[in-house]
Amino acid sequence: MTYRIETTEVQGSPMEVFLFEPEGPGPHPGLVQCQHIPGGHTGVENDQFTLETAERYAANGYVVAVPFIFHWWPKTDEMEPKRVGFRDDWTIPDLHAAYSVLAAMDNVDADRIGIVGHCWGGRVAWVGAASNPDYKACAVFYGGRIKLVMGEGNPPAIDLAPQIACPVIGFFGNDDTNPSPEDVDDYDAALTEAGVEHVFHRYDGAGHAFQSFNSAEHYRPQASEDAWEKVLAFFAEKLKLS
After folding, report:
1. Which residues contact 161 (CB under 8 A, 6 or more apart)?
2. What is the pLDDT of residues 135-159, one digit of tens each?
3. What is the pLDDT of residues 158-179, one digit of tens each?
4. Rounded distance, CA 141 to CA 220, Å?
5. Count of CA atoms in the C-beta half-sphere (13 A) of 156
6. Which residue(s) pair with 20 in the sheet?
């Protein structure tokens, strides 16, 4: 696995951005990949799922930037205070900074950048798409808590649907409880009401984290590979992968 780390500053706090690049000179389309929750305790370096997922996107022709969005806390801190203290108004500038790093790269076409995330990162991807009109595509994998407020004074993420300016694709397990199928119905309704182009794929026999190959409990290979096929086709179309 080959990546490099660039450090950028967000409101006075240094944030690592992990960068994965495909072969060839480009310019390539780009993806901001939002990490899922396990990366918040030990750092992205030890988050096997996020790193290998980014590597697979890079192998398919994308320059991928993975911002370490838990930089606001020491890496050695326990995860629970970070869950409780997580704020969208901190995360949005993190995503803007990662986008800027990606867009400034010589081998990236800044007009072809999307955003993607799994689990906690799925919610972050929704917030990111709603806070940056320059994204051309957004993929949400079983993002929970989209109906909840993260940080006092912020709106619930679902209320940001009218601000999403790009097409959205979503992947959800019908056995999941966060988000539940009823939650996914609400996401669908919010995007429909906002006039956002979107398509959701739902999988029977799959629950939360069904793409997590490193979890025997959650991994569902057939659903995972079907979702990979569909998300790569989506990004290839929307980001004009040559």
Report:
1. 130, 190, 191, 193, 194, 196
2. 999 999 999 999 999 999 999 999 9
3. 999 999 999 999 999 999 999 9
4. 14
5. 10
6. 64
Structural domain count of the chain: 1
Q: State the DSSP H helix or E strand holding residue 112, giving kind and residue range, or none if neither.
A: strand 108-118
* Whether residue 224 has pLDDT greater than 90: yes
3-state secondary structure at position 153: coil
Q: What percent of the chain is helix, strand and coil (3-state, nearest 5)?
A: 40, 25, 40
The CATH number for 171's domain is 3.40.50.1820
Query: Residue with structure tokens 């595509």?
Result: 137
* β 13-20/4-10 pair status: antiparallel
- Residue 44: band (very low, low, confident or very high) from pLDDT cuts 50, 70, 90: low
Three-class secondary structure of residue 238 per DSSP: helix
Domain extent at residue 184: 4-238
Measured CA to CA, the distance from residue 103 to residue 80 in angstroms comes to: 33
